[in-house]
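EI: anyone free to look at a 152-residue chain?
SC: sure, send it
EI:
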Amino acid sequence: MFKEFKEFAMRGNVVDMAVGIVIGAAFGTIVKSFVDDILMPPIGLLLGNIDFSNIFVTLKEGGKTAGPYFSLAAAKAAGAVTLNLGIFINAVISFLIIAFAVFLVIKGVNRMKGQKEAPPAEPTTKECPFCFTLIPLQAQRCPNCTSQLTAA
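SC: here you go
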């Protein structure tokens, strides 16, 4: 059983898939950081100093401290139940960036696959009209049935 698993795990497709998953996870982390740390702060600044990661709705106040809570961390520390809209917005933006990047990769792969193949080579043989075997184009007599061929 171990030998079969080893053969399965070492096949090219499985190894390629594993590499793709690892690179995809790393790419996801980079995009999340890009959204949270680079993209959203200027957008929040333009919208009036809004910190998107702190946009939340308190559904139930916490048992430790009563609201209002000025940050999501304070609400979580108090044990409040929150609806985290800002984190969801960041996740949607991260998804859109990753989806666009995957679209570009797939588009590039399809373009490389879709390149026109070389035109078919000129034929070097023709069919004998009497015995229907393939013979060279320049032949004037069929080597199989010895029929005289007309010049084309």
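EI: The helical segments are 2-9, 12-46, 72-77, 85-113.
SC: 👍
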